């Protein structure tokens, strides 16, 4: 057990920096084992403390060569270095120049933070605290400086040399064996946005003309030979640039915008100023190699990182507690971009599914924390679904509360008021208070109170008074460190739906109208009475998922079926169906666990689906979402305690089989009709057809019948695109049939040598719901295509197992947890960030039935007892096991 525990960093302890950095001149001589970094910093006292302050610089894994102050070597007795700091205790109290030479080793940097190598490419990742692994620096986001970067390298090893900003000079040295490039970024930025690249890379170039007529060069750098797979990322970038101009009035601000794809990357992508770095998985795509979902993800990530140029870079975060200020807001912006590009309802449903699957789960377990945490031990562990997805929901609620126009005015004010600054959440919200005249102090609870609020809504119709009474009650469950909560501001978009499907006008008893159909609950309880209601309506509440809450209503199964067919709000049409399916699945889980066989489905779910399939009128992508049952993890979360993942798997599979059997005729019919829509089309219509066709196939194959299996095999073989091929293969992998192995082997033969595609092959095998999977995964870790050193490989095999194979990860013998724990411990020495993320897959352990719960706890304790854990892993394990 680790005994010493460093104190947490606390928001309440924030103090402005004593020293600011005006300019940074970096001179980096690349070398595989000994890269020389010369940093020249112009430091200036911040002049707020009054008392002379020491200069304290962060530094990690650096070998200090020399240090000079205003040109003179600093005598050894005037500074102290420790494992993570350099302190000059009595610096002159005036601006001065500090020149520091350090040597770093990019080849042994397996953490992938700071300067490291991906293959032969030199690359950097500085967010959140990686810059201190390049040079000594006040590595905190409220120190914003202007950077000039000179890179030099052997030409043959690194013909391409890139850094932030605009290229100002380049040339040969050493008779042409070596060369250099100098980049200057005129915008002040925090150190986490620094980036440089050196390597043998090919590039694809395009141009964009901004709204004020500036020409911007766009470049995507990839491994030579992959240029043909950059088209989608480039088109996505141009769409994102145009959208930010029209939707938010934001224009790009440098001469050049670059994206570099690297194969070894801890995250998805990173928004470094003018030089975004990407996991190549989120750049490279062609119809033959990537699925429609991959294409969508690439577009969203390219847009997300581009949007950070304003929300994150031009306006950055004062400290890491404000992370949601850039991440939540930018996720909101990328969601809106996607919604504008295709169906808003389909985007909203997908976003809410993801929110419920990840964020609600996090909020319900030991790792729950507010959108703006009050303290942290390791900031890397706070790039969470709560900060990102719930952070985006909080911005969305501001939009719902203020209405789209006022919201836009508030955003304009934010950009105007805080450009060039390191801002806080308070300053952001103040902009919306100022433009609307609203008091948003209670709204701030969304940033400080963790936990998913529960709202109980009880509606009743009074025919005599022609009124509809709606009682609302809210409660926020306790979370670690927060036992009692205050009432939140909950915007609820509402509709009272007539029998003909239309909405009744919303007139409140006191004569007020609900503003844009939105009711705002601010008290623990409220009663609203709607007047002039001339027929019994069906309540449609939290339309469009206007607030990220758990809603409990007194709607009957009949009401839900009605809403599933008629609600004018497409989100709630889907939600009604989803609610019906969830109720039924939970009932069936109880039935199974009581040892009784599941009775035939009589909740009307089949009828509702049949109606959706046959009536038409809904777009295919939407119907595909209707056909997809709630996931196992989501059912588990709804059940909440004493969870048996095996029973959940059984109930869900049984329901799929039942639906596949009962709806066989319309499913086959749809499948065949949609199969005529060939050839492949990459556009939204084509995406929708494929989604629906593959959702039909999935239910048909769930019956296990040979005609359905044969169709899947045929689709696998005949597919002219990855979406259809993978859809057929993944539905086949759920069935224990001989065709499965043959298809998996065929897939490997077709695509070996293409690591991003082989990742799909790893994932498919990791998610097979059978006991043999565990041993198969162990064998696959020895496969030549696998490597623990590459995060994409580890995620494709091990994370996919822990997160996507609920049944086998939660094996009753605990060996699934064992595999994850062993991987975490082995990985922690190399890449703590990745290890910590994997370990958080165990976060829902307390909700499990007693047997598995004890085994999962035991597994966590094994981690906790291991010697020399990284701060990343020890933080996750400590919070996971904490009792409170
Ligand atoms: N700034 C982050 C990347 C990052 C995350 C750096 C954690 C350091 C630590 C970037 O903007 C981001 O959020 N990337 C996401 C994808 C995005 C579409 C949500 C990612 O990498 O997963
Ligand atoms: Zn981001």
Which features characterize this protein?
884 residues; alpha+beta; 27 helices; binds ligand BES; binds zinc ion
Overview of the molecule:
With 884 residues, the chain is of the alpha+beta class. Helices cover 40% and strands 20% of the residues. The strands form eight sheets. It has an eight-stranded mixed sheet, with no helix packed on it. Strands 17-18-19-21-20 form a five-stranded mixed sheet, covered by helices on one side. α3 packs across α5 (385-402), α13 (632-639) crosses α14 (645-662) and α17 packs antiparallel against α18 (722-733). The longest helix is centred in the middle third of the chain and has 24 residues, at 570-593. The radius of gyration is 28 Å and the shape is globular. 50% of the residues are buried. The mean pLDDT is 96. Bound molecules: ligand BES and zinc ion.
